[in-house]
Specification:
Elements lengths: L1 H40 L7 H13 L3 H26 L6
Amino acid sequence: MKKISLIAIISACFLTPVLSQAGTFEEAVKQASIEIDKARAVNYEWRDSRKLLKKAEKLNKQGKTEQALKLVAKAKYQGQQAVAQADLQSAITGPR
């Protein structure tokens, strides 16, 4: 009985980081998608933002979660910058 309990505890210790990263990754993708959707709403979605998310999904499935999270962060940043660019461009008036 002691061996089974010990094995269960050790297994839980090894699985906890993996499970927490999975939740972190999914939440990060969700937040990045929200930012990219905001950019789409103002017609300023950048070309590669969603491509970065797809590449991140593939990396995450390969177990390269850290690299995947970096791409997700980049995609989120692009979404935020696209909205900022839209705000700046809307303030510019052309020649009269």
